[in-house]
Amino acid sequence: MRHVLRETFSGLKRNTSMVLAVIVTMWVSLTLFGIGLLAAEQVDLVKDRWYDRIEISIFLCVKDSTNSNCETGVDTSQADKDAIEAALRANPEVADVFYESKAEMWEEFKKLYADSPILAEMTVDQMQDSFRVKLVNPEEYMGVVTAVSGMKGVEKVQDLHQYLDPVFNWLNIARMGTLGLSALLLIAAALQIGNTVALAAFSRRREIGIMRLVGASNWYIMLPFLLESLLAALAGVVLACGSLAALEKFIIVDRAKEELPSINWIDWPQVQVSMFWLLVVGVVLSVIPTIIGTRRFLKV
């Protein structure tokens, strides 16, 4: 074991610049990989929080409605309201249905625009009664929208998905872009580790040949190289984990949570899970290229 450790630290000294390059590459690539994992968690948290609050609003016809589902000059009849409500409650995608009358909408309107001059120009008859629909699965909304959009007495069906979906699509693109870039850097780190180990093995090829001739096993010969690459990778992992911890502390906890408390932000448990995956990826990226890089020098 003393020989293995001596050879390991000797190799680290002889290849200091290459080892530092490996550490920096691992640091940057693993940090981006961790940020990508955290971004994925953040998108899912925000998506779950907002999607759970989404309700579909079905606005009924008023006298001046121009929609083809509406009769000119009259509001939606009670019979049409009953038919719409019955269709909604019979839909398996609907969890609950709430009806808001014109009077209720007017009271809400007065609260919202209490200090606005527009309030003097509006009357209760200009309000629209509506149904608010709570969904079983907020992501499965098109069936409800399609079912009621063409019903008599329905002027408009509105849901927040048309505004939220583009936002989450762009967030997903950014997340995949971060993961893709980190994957390229991880590949670069693996190639760099492989080249570094191959150069170190080439410089010690005579020693390796002598050890093979005296009966040393492949793993005994390979172990110093494995430890060299593993130490460099672990240094990159530690730096990357420190970067994620700094991101969580100074950006998320100290700034984002205070300035935007309504958003459900990622917390330390998610950071710890990401750190675990950084460790796994770092170890894999150090071991596999080392085995590949030294294998051809193990033949006498």
Number of strands: 4
Distance between the termini: 23 Å
Task: Please identify the structural class as seen in this structure.
Answer: alpha+beta
Low-pLDDT runs of 5+ residues are none
User: Which strand order do you get reading across the main beta sheet?
Assistant: 2-3-1-4
Number of domains: 2
Radius of gyration: 32 Å
Largest sheet report = 4 strands, antiparallel
Estimate what percentage of residues fall within beta strands.
Answer: 5-15%
Helix segment tally: 9
Salient structural properties:
4 strands; alpha+beta; elongated; Alpha-Beta Plaits; four-stranded antiparallel sheet; 9 helices; 300 residues; 2 domains
Topology:
Elements lengths: L1 H13 L1 H38 L1 E6 L17 H13 L3 E7 L1 H11 L17 E6 L6 H8 L4 E5 L2 H43 L1 H9 L4 H42 L8 H28 L5
Helix pairs in contact: 1-8, 2-6, 2-8, 2-9, 6-9, 8-9
Explain what you see.
The structure is a single chain. The chain has 300 residues and is an alpha+beta fold. The protein folds into 2 domains: 184 residues, no CATH class; 105 residues, Alpha-Beta Plaits (2-Layer Sandwich). Helices cover 68% and strands 8% of the residues. It is built from 9 helices and 4 strands, in the order ααβαβαβαβαααα. It has a 4-stranded antiparallel sheet. It is elongated, with a radius of gyration of 32 Å. It starts with a helix and ends in a 5-residue tail after the last helix. The model has no long low-confidence stretch (mean pLDDT 80).
